[in-house]
Each structure stands twice: as structure tokens, then as C-alpha cells.
Amino acid sequence: MHDIRAIRDNPDAFVAGWSSRGVEDARAIVDELLELDRELRAAQTAGQDGLAKRNAASKAIGAAMAKKDMAEAERLKAEVESLKSEIAAAEETEREVGGRLRDLLAAQKNLAADDVPDGADEDANVEVSRWGTPREGGPAKDHADLGEALGLLDFEAAARMSGARFAVLKGGLARLERAIGQFMLDVQTGEHGYLEVNPPYLVRDEAMFGTGQLPKFEEDLFKTEAFDWDRLQAETHASADLAFKEDEQRLNELVKDLQGSLDPDVFEHAWKAARAEMTQQAKDRHLPKIMQRVQSGEFSERYYLIPTAEVSLTNLVREQILLESELAEPIRYTALTPCFRAEAGSAGRDTRGLIRQHQFHKVELVSIARPEDSEAEHERMVGCAEAILRRLELPYRKVLLCKGDMGFSAKKTYDLEVWLPSQGTYREISSCSNCGDFQARRMNAKFKRDQGRPYGSGTYGSGTYGAKTEFVHTLNGSGLAVGRTLVAILENYQQDDGSIRVPAALIPYMGGVERIVAD
């Protein structure tokens, strides 16, 4: 998300930046943002002026009454009432215009870094390097054919229970997929310094907004709703308690009159009965209000299934202010999770096989860094992903994406593409992006510079006066996509007899199994 002050200060840079990323109406968007910004600031000024006038008039009322100038006091009271209406109108305008401004800002993609090549689509991407040599000759069957021939990959069974873009893996292939994920995690945590995290797979709207999936890409997400029974129960009791307290004073007055005139046992029974009856009446009075709130959906909790663990891992720092000392080295997280994607924009693409599934596993890498460290961290992250491909001896190439082919939140992206013999081309297996402060602004994730005048120690902590607070930079990448790595292994390690040789790096994770054969 962008700072409206930056757009205000340099609108032409945003017009040029968004235009270069394929936004056709960039000038109109900038003009609308600036107009909303003017309206918002005018409403804020009107509200502040109204408050100042109201406060001055309120003080003047006291002075006029002290002088017994009742006519002036009444005039000032009328002025205060008029100003209340003006202030309320300004506040309403501020809410309405502010909401429109935030919504429009939230829908705009990140600006590209200066060294990102121009271009509209993947044809303009720039190859940076290659590693390994694609094999020549030998079998080049498609991974789907290989898996089905082994009896270990079943698309029909998956379709019967879940529909298209799902698969059932069995036996040696199921074990191989598990081995791939565990191998990747061990390398990223044991050798590259990432902290393993087991995060939620279901997140709220705010988390998806933070990383940029919402509001623009909701159609690509799976979501579910659950009824919050705990909240309903708590608020029902709270409402009844409030109603009970309204009646309790009257009951206590009645008790005082009766206590001295009744037998103690009779009094205790009457007291309990009266309280029970009053509690039930309180619930009855407030139940219709609660039911109206239930019917409006207020107690329904909406959750989204994560399309990537980037969402969960990056949001670990949402609404936090870190110390710069915590970022002396970038914070590095990794997780192996299932990912869920509706693939709404992929109709007709990769409809067969494991390349584009609604559900798949991926090892995600996320870094949180200071602005001055994010470029170097980006290069390091790409290297961590490349290391997996090299250890598995899979030929690949590194590509720098052009401005038109990058994702919504990215300012710079490298793709790693692995060689697939059946297609005779390289296909994406990892995408590593530096998002700058774009996601951090959406999440309000900041850090405080270690500068300024020091204060305190001991019980009440310590810190610095005047230390500058800045937004962190966030980075994310695949280290790697497990399903696509499985595809690459099937195709690059296939044998003439249809079996699959297990890469040397994975044999320990396969319990010593060196070849996958028909079950």
C-alpha cells in the first residue's frame, strides 16, 4: 500500500510507475486519489476549525453568564448547537471520503524497482543464468502418464470426491512427496538459518489484506464461515447481566422492606425465586436484540484458506514495532504447509497433471529486514531456493521478471524455472520477491531505529527518546513448491522401464529406497 503523501509529492512518478506495470488508466487513478486526498484534508480542517470555534464559544458562554448577559449566553448556546451539526457533518465526510481513499489506495499495485526490465508479459522477462544441462535422449513421458502407469497417481478418484485439479498420491509417490518437503525444510533450517514455523492455515480478512491478496484477488481464494458460539454466549450473558443490574436496585429496596417481616427460611426461598425470575425476564427482554444481530451475520467468522504460507508467516509481524537490534540480521521464517488456490484466472491452463492444483504443498521462505538490507536479502533468498534444485540435480534457469509480469505486491521478482523433458521447456518452480515496505504499510509492521537519547533500565524497561520509526521490508519466496518438484523429479529421473530413480539427496528420506516402481 502506498503513502498518499508520496503520491501528493510526486504524482508523475506514480503515473509512470503504474503505467509501466500495465495500468492503463494510471493518470485517472492518480487524479482521483489526489482529489479524494484534497476532500479528506478539507473535511479534517473543517472539523478541527469547528471544534476550535465550539470550544471558544463554550468558554464565552461562561463569561457571558458571569456578566449576567443572558442574551449573549443564549446566542452563544445556539452557536454551539449549530457548530455541533457542522462538526458531525465534517466527521461524516471524513469517514466517507477517507474510506474511499483507503479502498482506492489498497487496490493499487506496488511500484517496480529501478532495475526491473520494462515489458508487458513473460516474453519480456530476462534470463539471468542457467544451471545444469537438460538431458538429451531417453524417455520423456509426461509426469501424469508416468504416475498413472505406476498405479501411484490417481486423478479419477480425486475427481470423484473433489472435482478437477485434485490428485491422489499413493505408495512410493506419496512417500516421495513427503521426503521432498522434509528435505527442503532440513536444508532451509539447518543450513540457511530459517526458523521453522507451523502457522495457521485459516486466516482472517486482515491477514489477506496485509499481504495483498485482498481485496483485489478474492476470486482466487477459498473461504469458509463459522459461527462464533462462544461470542454469542458471552454477549447473551452480558446483555442479561446488564438488564439484571437495571432491576437490581428495585429488588434490593423490596428486600429491605420484607427481610424483617418474614421468617428467615421463607425469606431465603423468596429471595432466590425473585432473582431467578428477574434474570429470566432480563434474558427475555434482550433476546430479540441478540437474534437481530445473529441474523445480520454479526456472529459469523469468515476465514480464508491460505494460498501460500507467505500470508501466515509475513503476518507474524503485523501491528508490531520491532527494535532495530532484532533486525541486525533479517528475521527468516520457513514453513511447509498445504496451499489452496481457486485458480480462477487459469481456466484451460495445465488442466491435466500436478502443475496447477487447487491443493498442494510448498515450503515458503519469508524474511523481515531493514530497508537497507532487503536487496541483499533478496539475492540470498534466491540462492537458498537454488540450493535445493542443485542438491536434487535438476536443471534450471533464473529469470528476472519484467514489470508487467510481476505479482501485485512485488517490487522485484526472480523466478526459478525447472526443466521438464515432456514439455521441452523450463517451468516455474519458485518465485522470490522483494516487496519493499508495500506489505508492511498494509500490516502496520514497523521497527525503531537504535538512535536517540537512551532512557531507563530494569523494571520498566529501556529504549531511546527520539528514535525514528520506519516500516520494515518484507520478502517471500518458494523454497520450493513441493508438487512441482515432484513433477520435475518424475520427468528428469524417469527410466526406460517406467520406474523413477530417487535423487541421491532424497534416498535417506526414503528409508534407503533408490527406485520407485509400480505398486
Q: Biggest β-sheet: count, sense, barrel?
A: 8 strands, mixed
The CATH architecture name of the largest domain reads 2-Layer Sandwich
**How many DSSP helices?**
14
Rg, nearest Å:
32 Å
**CATH class identity of the largest domain:** Alpha Beta
- The chain-level structural class is alpha+beta
Instruction: Tell the overall outline.
Output: globular
How far apart the termini lie comes to 51 Å
User: Helix share of residues?
Assistant: 40-55%
Average residue-wise pLDDT: 90
Instruction: Determine the CATH superfamily of the largest domain.
Output: Bira Bifunctional Protein, Domain 2
Poorly predicted parts: none
User: Which range does the strand content fall in?
Assistant: 15-25%
Neighbour order of strands in the largest sheet: 1-11-12-13-18-10-9-4
Number of strands: 20
State the domain count. 3
CATH topology of the largest domain: BirA Bifunctional Protein, domain 2
Question: Overview of this structure, please?
Answer:
With 519 residues, this protein is of the alpha+beta class. The chain folds into three domains: 4-107, Orthogonal Bundle (Helix Hairpins); 122-138 and 197-222 and 305-492, BirA Bifunctional Protein, domain 2, CATH 3.30.930.10; 229-298, no CATH class. 46% of the residues lie in helices and 19% in strands. The chain has helices at 4-9, 11-20, 26-66, 70-106, 143-150, 155-162, 171-190, 205-211, 229-259, 264-295, 310-314, 374-391, 438-443, 482-492, and strands at residues 126-131, 153-154, 168-169, 195-196, 202-203, 223-227, 300-305, 321-323, 331-340, 359-369, 396-400, 412-420, 425-434, 446-448, 453-455, 463-465, 469-471, 473-481, 500-501, 515-516. It has an eight-stranded mixed β-sheet. A three-stranded antiparallel β-sheet has the order 5-7-6. A three-stranded mixed β-sheet has the order 8-14-17, with no helix packed on it. Strand 15 and strand 16 form a beta hairpin. Its EC number is 6.1.1.11. Residues 175-503 form the Aminoacyl-transfer RNA synthetases class-II family profile domain. Homodimer. The tRNA molecule binds across the dimer. Belongs to the class-II aminoacyl-tRNA synthetase family. Type-1 seryl-tRNA synthetase subfamily.
